[in-house]
Hints:
3 helices, Molybdopterin biosynthesis moea protein, domain 2, single chain, 38% helix, 96 residues
Amino acid sequence: xxxxxxxxxxxxxxxxxxxxxxxxxxxxxxxxxxxxxxxxxxxxxxxxxxxxxxxxxxxxxxxxxxxxxxxxxxxxxxxxxxxxxxxxxxxxxxxx
Length: 96
């Protein structure tokens, strides 16, 4: 589920999460297919990023990064805290 800036949104994309305003009010619900009219509406609001359905563009690169991280920590993950640091980095990378 990619997270895109409002400027990257295109007609036909489907929201993976609802868009809510600062007060927690739902502007557009999850599952809404974006149209040109809705894109104009969203761009006029104080919304920075939106989650859309689909595979992230960098998902293949992300898997390669996770594998590289495993290789880099292989020799040191038995040291105190190194496995914990590796887990923190993996969680962060998965969230990108």
